[in-house]
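Help!! Second protein's tokens look totally different from the first
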Amino acid sequence: MHGGHEHDHSNGGGGPLATGPAGVGHNRPTDARRPVQWQTPHREDPPTAEEGRRAETDLDLVEAAFVEGFLGASDATSFLRLARVPFEGTASDGAKLALLRVEVDSVADVGSITPHLGGASFRYDPLPARMVSRRKRLRLVYFDGQKPRMLDLAEALSLAIS
């Protein structure tokens, strides 16, 4: 009996103050293999179903690290080899591709638009300085024998090496 009532104050362990094992990262989800953070890349077009299936977790963070390393590399060709970017490959449609150049653009979002009800018009608002977002956009330009093809890092890494 304790303080006028009779029950155990234990939290599931051996004694009144003991606790059961919390497990790996007790504040994490039970599936510890999944990353805690997910980033959505800034894209001009919505991803296709195929791109969605092969999307890499935190892809925009991987691309940002690639851009940072590439821009600082004294030997761009060796950096591309270390990153396993194919110089020649075959696209999913069977086209043979050859890497021509790596393009890095600096992008700053300085305004936002909000569509009005019905979607026929929109409202534009310039962003205050603290809300302006800056990022670098990466494109790997391959030639398919007729025209250049712009690929992102995931697309280039998925080429079948020839």
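Here's the second one for comparison:
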Amino acid sequence: MLLKTASLTPKLKSIICDKNTEYPGTGVYNDLDEAGSYLCRNCGLALFRAAHKFHSGCGWPSFDNQVDNNVRREPDSDGRRTEILCARCNAHLGHVFHGENYTALNTRHCVNSAAIDFVSNSKVLDSEEAILAAGCFWGVEYYLQRLSGVLKTEVGYSGGHTQNPSYTEVCQHSTGHLEVIRVVYDPQLVSYADLLKYFFEIHDPTQTNGQGPDVGEQYLSAIFYYNDTQLAIAQQVIQLLHKLGYTAVTKLLPVSVFWPAENYHQNYYTLNGKLPYCHNWQKKFL
């Protein structure tokens, strides 16, 4: 199990760890109606399928069933409601209600959008996460979305000292943040080592001042590791690069808060019908 607590923003922590509730009608998944699955935002376990999602009008995503026994129930501290949690990591999800007659199952799991990740895969059972930096996050996301086993990508900022930075602030080099990408992947389909190999093949890890024509500290190459296992694998892959003649200057940094970038940066090249100008795929590993 890979816990993501260290990368959560204060808002996400307040809900997932401190059992707070997002305001009704504000969640990103309230009106989403696409085939797929909803994963625990804290540990990646599959919790709900989109096929069980319904519109209840309550202001939060609603599901009338769960995946296997992956959602645990316990009496809420208020003495009135039943809390629902991730059965593996105890992340707070929301509450469950019965007898409302919304669906044939007569059950409503009322879930905070902040506590879950949506992925367009209806069968995934578990997932893991990587946070990577390789220059302009538009191009990095474009290529990583095309790797088999990647379930979700999200671009943002990490590694700096400013809370909730804006793109303008990051470009002014006043925050210490790098442009990064959060990658949620199925470890049954792609290993962390193979993900990193592909990461090194879609950018130049030997460039010391940025990536391609993009020069600046926010464009440096870096791997943010969640635990000692990820760190060891990253070191092994970099050693392989060195044996192949590439002097990688990629930084290895412990995970820090991942701040999502503005909406217009997400899935940029695909939504705008363009191709990356500073990234390409070049086979490096045998």
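Reply: Different proteins will give different token patterns, so don't panic. The CA atoms of residues 102 and 198 lie 46 Å apart.
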